[in-house]
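Researcher: Structure prediction, please.
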Amino acid sequence: MKIFDIFRKKPKMPASIEDGMASQADDFINAFRGPGSPIDADGLDFSRDSIALVDRILQDFYAQNAQLPDDLHFLASAYVFECARRRYGGRYLRGDEKNPFVLVVGEPEFQIGVCAMEKVLGRATNGPEDNLQFFFDGIDYPYQQKQSVTLV
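Model: Predicted structure follows.
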């Protein structure tokens, strides 16, 4: 292999933030395939109920008082985002330091800003008080009522 072959085989950049986030969510699922996994990756099907599996993974970090690695933080957040986007639609926007990405659903009639990144980190740090399924379920009411809110 020639030295320049390395540059020809660069991974392709995603066409959009949505494509990139979907790819990261798939990487999250793939990280839990195989023997010794704390959860069954087949349950990570982007459904509402699958959020409980993500919650269980983050509970382990909380219980062990362990810091959530940045890469797992991003992958878990991408999975939660994609569960919401597949259910409610929306697009990603750049956010702030605590929430580098925000999923915005309901446009143009209303805007619900879903800030999953801060919530995922909070779940690993604060424990059950930052329950992800409760957070995810909190999208439905303002969505049905067409209310503009930010969910953190």
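Model: Strands lie at 91-94, 101-105, 112-114, 149-151.
Researcher: Thanks, that helps.
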